[in-house]
Specification:
The chain is an alpha/beta fold. The protein is built from 10 helices and 13 strands. The strands form 4 sheets. It has a 7-stranded parallel beta sheet, sandwiched between helices. Strands 7-10 form a two-stranded parallel ribbon. Strands 8-13 form a two-stranded parallel ribbon.
Length: about 300
Amino acid sequence: MVEYLITGGAGFIGSNIAAHLVRNGRSVRVLDNFLTGKRDNLRAFADKADISEGDIRNPDDCRRAVAGVRYILHLAALPSVPRSVADPSLSHDINVTGTLNLLIAARDARCQRLVFSSSSSVYGNTPTLPKHEAMTPSPLSPYAVHKLTGEHYCRIFWQLYGFETVSLRYFNVFGPRQDPKSEYAAVIPRFITAILRDQQPTIFGDGTQTRDFTFVENIVAANLAATVAPKPALGESCNVACGDRISLLDLVATINQSLSKNISPKLDPPRPGDVLHSQAANTKARDLLGWTPRVTFADGIAKTIAWYRQQT
């Protein structure tokens, strides 16, 4: 039996989870179509994991991937709010149809549990902070709709079929292996690499928008906690974040200080679908999953900057 299947395991978060599991001697299978995932992310442990090229849009690929698997960590997705705005159909096919294909295959194969990677984007621009799971979701983008739909599918697969699922709402994950080169890249890798090159990082908006940035090691721990969480967690959605927030202007200042530089950001118009302020209440994850964030933003950003400096 394979202990863990990681869909999207060649991506940023997936490869961090895979590397952690392999280091700890666990059996791992990775499924990725390499549309956004990178083989380089797997190179350090490729000989110790089962790497399978396949696409969750293909039901046959899903059935092959889940065969003999105990836990599924479902991270395969077409990431990015702007990308979903530009191509909602492709995002839907991967993020919604692909998730449904995987749930059906996992249920039929009698896998034990699936942990679904959702997003804080499901909350939208609701003014209430911190954002908690009892709030009514108000997605602003196709990507957010797709993630919320995935959560609903996970919930009903537990309620209707007894197939165990847990959904995790990530808040602005950052850390090593995050790609800074894509036009859809997250802000932290873009800001770090720009400032390292003495270039102005671009902020969309006035920079006062805030985010609950969450270091990837906290996400790894939450996924593993969700695989063994007790019955009250099943079918539920939990925020995974530190419960703090920092503005993008302060983020630029923090990176400048760490690199002993003083490069001001370039301000561009806001992007459609972007949320102004984001901060998580993480009590539910603490209570249901037994999870707590162990790496602070300050420690995480220091580790991340050190990693990007090694890459240059």
